[in-house]
Write a structure and sequence with these properties.
single chain, mainly alpha, Alpha-Beta Plaits, 4-stranded antiparallel sheet, 52% helix
Length: 352
């Protein structure tokens, strides 16, 4: 985004768009198309000699054998979506250059921005991009496609609001500042759709060395814990990040020898887990993360229902891989004893 701003003086317009219903629309076969081309990918269908074919099958198995859709949230979904969109970006850029269109384009996940010098160039850019999207069974979101005269459109308005309350430069965060900032974050999230403001807020609660900035008094621990869990209801995909912060909070309590708050938090998580276990099919995502979190921290013994059909959940339950057993992939790392596991915050830093 900063690079785009630096080059903007050379252009007159910015055109913005994103992909309609992106992750649920991704066709798993298109992973292999992006890596190997459609011809070779189709020849390898059901043979699994190519990496793309193996990834295709892996994601089908993770989604009840469906060929449409990637799970929203996991870092691996971001990685695979990059494989597909990198192919779209390459093909789009090559065609636009061949047409002598003067442009600069950037993409963050499924959010595109192009600088250009005329409305006709903007129209051409969108048509070319849409053509190459369709080659991978994807479509642009017409309702979110906008052409603006520069400098309008260069900045995300929510980021300007967030800069007023950012915790980025705070070394220690007391409870009241945490609470007030969270309330302001919720207001920004209400005012603007499809922002990353909650993710940004959560990322600023820890340092680059994965230490917790929160400096919470004993009387405020449970309030902090409760607000973090409530934040998950606003943004489901933030649940792993929230658990990572709660894990650091547990660690703080151990160091302070605050067993009362530690046990209260553990008991609350047990109630949440037990409640979700009553309806496994609707709570698989939450249960997967909670099970890993509970076992890796040794919080309590889980009382399982007998009917667990989810292979991913079966794997964490038994601590052995029960899904897509294939020699070319190591897809499951055993959960070690508490203290020996890598902190969750480090696991999630694959895409910092």
């Amino acid at each position: 985004e900063n690079d785009l701003i630096a080059e903007a003086h050379q252009f007159k317009y910015i055109v913005k768009t994103d992909i309609k219903n992106f992750y649920p629309s991704i066709y798993t076969h298109s992973i292999s198309w992006a890596l190997h081309g459609k011809t070779d990918a189709r020849k390898d269908r059901n043979k699994f000699n190519l990496l793309g074919s193996k990834l295709d099958k892996l994601f089908q198995n993770a989604n009840d054998s469906c060929t449409n859709g990637l799970p929203i949230g996991p870092a691996v979904s971001d990685l695979v979506s990059e494989i597909i969109l990198a192919a779209v970006d390459r093909d789009t850029s090559m065609e636009l250059m061949n047409r002598n269109i003067n442009f600069i384009g950037v993409r963050f996940k499924d959010d595109y921005r192009f600088l250009c010098n005329s409305k006709s160039d903007a129209e051409t850019i969108m048509k070319v991009l849409q053509t190459h999207m369709r080659n991978f069974n994807l479509n642009l979101n017409e309702s979110k496609t906008n052409l603006l005269e520069l400098p309008e459109g260069l900045f995300r308005h929510w980021t300007a609001d967030y800069q007023k309350i950012t915790l980025r430069y705070k070394r220690k965060i007391e409870y009241k500042r945490f609470e007030n900032t969270l309330l302001a974050v919720l207001q920004i999230d209400n005012n603007y759709t499809d922002t990353g403001v909650i993710d940004r807020f959560l990322s600023e609660l820890t340092t680059k060395k994965y230490n917790l900035k929160l400096n919470i008094k004993n009387k405020d621990v449970l309030k902090t814990f409760s607000l973090l869990l409530l934040l998950k209801e606003r943004r489901v995909k933030s649940f792993p990040q929230i658990l990572a912060i709660i894990e650091l909070l547990f660690k703080q309590l151990k160091l302070k020898k605050n067993s009362t708050s530690y046990n209260q938090m553990s008991n609350s998580l047990e109630k949440i887990f037990t409640s979700k276990l009553d309806n496994v099919s609707d709570n698989q995502y939450d249960l997967l993360w909670l099970t890993y979190f509970i076992k890796s921290n040794g919080l309590f013994s889980i009382k399982w229902n007998r009917n667990i059909n989810c292979e991913l959940l079966q794997s964490i339950k038994s601590n052995n891989q029960r899904f897509f057993v294939y020699p070319d992939f190591k897809l499951y790392s055993k959960i070690k004893k508490p203290v020996k596991n890598i902190p969750l915050i480090k696991h999630l830093s694959i895409f910092p």
